[in-house]
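Exercise: predict the fold of this chain.
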Amino acid sequence: MKTFFSVLLLLAGLCGMSSCSKKDNANTPDGNSTAALGSGSIYYDWSELNSLAVTYQLDLAGSVRSKALQYDPDRHAWDISRDGSIMLQSVQDPNDYDGELYRIIDRNTGQTLSQFKKQGTTLSSFTEPLLSPGKDLIAVPPTFDRGLLILNRQGQLLHEVVTIGGQKIKGHICWMPDNSILCTVGNIIYRLNNTYTYGDVVRTLDFNDWNHVTASNDGTLIAFAGGKHIWLMQADGSNLKQVTTSTDVEGYPVFSPDGRYLLIGTDYVGEENAINRWKLAIIPADGQLYNVDDGADNHVIPIRLKNSESTQELCDYLMEWR
């Protein structure tokens, strides 16, 4: 299913000169080996040479990049379970121009475990469904004509939440470990309980532009992009801290599986709201402020490929750390 080719990851900025030792090359922000980043892989969308987007998998422990998904013009989005065993894809229904199929795939065998048509949406046939921590539920972010949907793996609609406090849920959502869900209404982050009957206010934010609320796997920390930079706080909304600064824009924070680091997008570029791209970098998720401008802070790990001192890995859509 996967085509592997050797591309070693250079953790740039951790070794200043070409004469540094292999031990120095393996250092991370806290001075330990690269194992301090945690096991697992980073998955991200980007173009392959001059072709259209594919999904890459970069194994941090082995420093090898592979192709997790070939280009597919019918694929809308994807999500990978927290244990890495299954993938959920949303794809165009070949028999219905306005329809969308959800497909669940065993990542070890490539076998399709289930496939069903997402029902009930007439205006929005492009969605980004997310697998629950236990892999038994699917959350579908709200669209123009539907609320937040909770489905089982056979496609049965279990719950739909349209509003909280009389206002429509909008934007990005995130599962918490107890199957509650973080969602947003206006400038408020809510935590919807795991019976999907009410929501508690986590925090009201004072930003004109903010997005992509996400949580650590253990549910203790929340990160989001706001006011051009990345912010971190406790799960109850306390201790809010800005954790990145730069002369550019950061976005799309993603926690490492152990919650100790954040994969982020730096130097964000948008082209007339159609084509976006950002550089991949890693910072500690410790509440400290990190300058992510090139070369400004040696605690920031820009993701570069071997023998490439200037080119950082790029992403233009989805990215995850599993």
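Check your answer against the key: The chain has a mean pLDDT of 84.
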